[in-house]
Amino acid sequence: MECQGCTDSIKKSVAALECIESVQCDLKNQLVSVTGSCAPSSIVKAIQATGKDAIVRGTGGPNSAAVCILESHINSDTGSSVKGLARIVAVSPTQALFDITLNGLPKGKYYPSIRVGGDISRGAESVGAQYLDLGEIPVDQPNDSSNELLAQQGGYSGQAFFKRNVTISELIGRSMVLSTNRNTVDNASLVGVIARSAGVWENLKTVCSCSGKTVWQERQDAVSKGL
């Protein structure tokens, strides 16, 4: 954000989403604070629609958010192994919102589920039985042509939101699997381990201590992988 005009545009774009209660922009610290129950990816897209980029720095309160990167474990798979991202946020003490985005996949219907275990040493074949069924995600939109990697690898994208009666603490350490068959998983299924994610104001870093890169450099790395 560079000026008051930027903040006004962002406020207008985000406020137009459903389930938004308030939008506050801090020009000096380059922060946008949103109160509501809208999916995080929808807020990011609303900000990007103004010509700016955005990074989700935190969602919900302490211990009320999680994230899962869905990857292919097939060595022969072309392009990036990362095919999806799931953001999970508690919307009540007993209910969670699953915000799942998929990219670079063949067109079709996909079925995400939570598994009882988090051992992904053999991909989806070592994660155990189903713990929670999430539903169905249609993958039928062409990949974003503005993302060079996604444009090169082809395939289609999809997005879906699910609310389920489950707590974040129940999910941490388990795995999420994405398969083309609702009732079975195999070595071609995507899989990732669910990890805790920062709540609001729990992640104020501007430089990653692991890589030494700024959060925006880390953002570009994530984009290059299709996230």
Question: How is this structure best summarized?
Answer:
By secondary structure, the protein is of the alpha+beta class.
Summarize the structure in words.
- This protein is an alpha+beta fold.
- The chain has two domains: 1-54, 2-Layer Sandwich (Alpha-Beta Plaits), CATH 3.30.70; 65-196, Sandwich (Immunoglobulin-like), CATH 2.60.40.
- The protein contains five helices and 13 strands.
- The strands form three sheets. A six-stranded antiparallel β-sheet has the order 9-10-5-4-3-13, with no helix packed on it. Strands 6, 7, 8, 11 and 12 form a five-stranded antiparallel β-sheet that branches. A two-stranded antiparallel ribbon has the order 1-2.
- A hairpin with a 2-residue loop joins β4 (82-92) and β5.
- The chain is globular, with a radius of gyration of 18 Å.
- The model has no long low-confidence stretch (mean pLDDT 83).
- InterPro entries: HMA_dom, HMA_dom_sf, SOD-like_Cu/Zn_dom_sf.
- Its cofactor is Cu(2+).
- This is Superoxide dismutase 1 copper chaperone.
- Residues 1-55 form the HMA domain.
| Secondary structure tally, helices | 5
Tell me the name of the CATH homologous superfamily of the largest domain: Superoxide dismutase, copper/zinc binding domain
What is the gyration radius calculated from CA atoms?
A: 18 Å
Report mean pLDDT, rounded to a whole number.
83
Q: What percentage of amino acids are in beta strands? A: 25-35%
At CATH level 3, the topology of the largest domain is Immunoglobulin-like
Could you say what the CATH architecture of the largest domain is? Sandwich
Q: Give the number of DSSP strands.
A: 13
Q: How would you sum up the global shape?
A: globular
Would you tell me the structural class of the helices and strands? alpha+beta
Distance between the termini: 22 Å
GO biological process, one term: superoxide metabolic process
InterPro entries: HMA_dom (IPR006121), HMA_dom_sf (IPR036163), SOD-like_Cu/Zn_dom_sf (IPR036423)
Protein name: Superoxide dismutase 1 copper chaperone
GO molecular function, one term: metal ion binding
